[in-house]
Automatic annotation (TrEMBL):
<dbReference type="GO" id="GO:0015940">
    <property type="term" value="P:pantothenate biosynthetic process"/>
</dbReference>
<dbReference type="InterPro" id="IPR003700">
    <property type="entry name" value="Pantoate_hydroxy_MeTrfase"/>
</dbReference>
<comment type="subunit">
    <text>Homodecamer; pentamer of dimers.</text>
</comment>
<keyword id="KW-0963">Cytoplasm</keyword>
<keyword id="KW-0566">Pantothenate biosynthesis</keyword>
<dbReference type="GO" id="GO:0032259">
    <property type="term" value="P:methylation"/>
</dbReference>
<keyword id="KW-0460">Magnesium</keyword>
<comment type="function">
    <text>Catalyzes the reversible reaction in which hydroxymethyl group from 5,10-methylenetetrahydrofolate is transferred onto alpha-ketoisovalerate to form ketopantoate.</text>
</comment>
<dbReference type="GO" id="GO:0005737">
    <property type="term" value="C:cytoplasm"/>
</dbReference>
<feature type="binding site">
    <location>
        <position position="116"/>
    </location>
    <ligand>
        <name>Mg(2+)</name>
    </ligand>
</feature>
<keyword id="KW-0808">Transferase</keyword>
<dbReference type="Pfam" id="PF02548">
    <property type="entry name" value="Pantoate_transf"/>
</dbReference>
<keyword id="KW-0479">Metal-binding</keyword>
<dbReference type="InterPro" id="IPR040442">
    <property type="entry name" value="Pyrv_kinase-like_dom_sf"/>
</dbReference>
<protein>
    <recommendedName>
        <fullName>3-methyl-2-oxobutanoate hydroxymethyltransferase</fullName>
        <ecNumber>2.1.2.11</ecNumber>
    </recommendedName>
</protein>
<dbReference type="GO" id="GO:0008168">
    <property type="term" value="F:methyltransferase activity"/>
</dbReference>
<feature type="binding site">
    <location>
        <position position="45"/>
    </location>
    <ligand>
        <name>Mg(2+)</name>
    </ligand>
</feature>
Length: 265
């Protein structure tokens, strides 16, 4: 199979073919996602929430991200593997940011990194790009800054914030990013940005006009029982299905129906 590259993603935008992106954090899930034909697998810092049970993405460390990413890379035969630089690993200075990105590329074997923010992180983005590491931007709702905003509601509804986002998107393109995630912003703004930049935009809660879409796999498979924001389309209810299977197993053990004669040596 031919590996998806940032160059192929650009061609997809140019010919109007939408880009499919989904998160994965471990080998087995990533193998299923890759086999299904996903274009991009994101090793998101949402691992902090869905894998580790933290309330925010802030606690996950660079070492933990590298562990998740290396597992995903071993499974991904076709997808481009993008890895989030976690909170605290790139905001300090550009040298530190570059070291973090190099560790992700070297120790995990990732293909690209993703970073939250616009003009504020321009120097770090630029330095990482100079080292030949592809960078994906992330604008709109940026969960690593949750304590600055206080809520996970829709971003850039006010003109001042919308204008900053437009400028940030152009800046990220100018720096050389190969794509930008747009999280939880009005569909109209996402459409404008997607048309104003040449590079692909990947939306989550940003409407249908983005060049691609991304979701957290636990959310779209319905593994997280309670999480049902408007933007989420749930393609399965694995919580129910797994719960049923596990209860059946417990019942079979208790009732002594498992293992049976054929299931023993
Ligand atoms: O960490 C993550 O899963 C993400 C996506 C929601 C874009 O950054
Ligand atoms: Na993230």
């Amino acid at each position: 199979v031919k590996r998806i590259t940032t160059h192929i993603l650009q061609e997809m935008k140019n010919r109007g073919e939408k880009i499919a992106m989904l998160t994965a954090y471990d080998y087995s899930m990533a193998a299923i996602v890759d086999n299904a034909g996903m274009d991009i697998i994101l090793v998101g810092d949402s691992a902090s929430n869905v894998m580790a049970g933290h309330e925010t993405t802030l606690p996950i460390t660079l070492d933990q991200m590298i562990y998740h990413a290396s597992s995903v890379v071993r499974a991904a035969k076709r997808a481009l593997v993008v890895v989030d630089l976690p909170f605290g690993s790139y905001q300090g200075n550009s040298k530190e940011a570059l070291n973090s990105a190099i560790r992700i590329m070297k120790e995990a074997g990732a293909h690209a990194v993703k970073m939250e923010g616009g003009i504020e992180i321009a120097e770090s983005v630029s330095r990482i790009l100079t080292a030949g590491i592809p960078v994906m931007g992330h604008l709109g709702l940026t969960p690593q800054s949750i304590y600055k905003f206080g809520t996970y509601t829709v971003r850039a509804k006010q003109e001042a914030e919308a204008q900053k986002l437009r400028e940030d998107a152009l800046k990220l393109q100018e720096l050389g990013c190969f794509g930008i995630v747009l999280e939880k912003i009005p569909a109209k703004l996402a459409k404008e940005v997607s048309e104003s930049v040449q590079i692909p935009t990947i939306g989550i809660g940003a409407g249908r006009h983005c060049d691609g879409q991304v979701l957290v796999i636990h959310d779209m498979l319905g593994i997280n029982d309670g999480f049902k924001p408007r933007f989420l389309r749930q393609y399965s209810n694995l919580f129910e299905q797994m719960n049923g299977a596990i209860k059946n197993y417990i019942g079979d053990v208790k009732s002594k129906s498992f293992p049976n004669e054929q299931e023993q040596y």
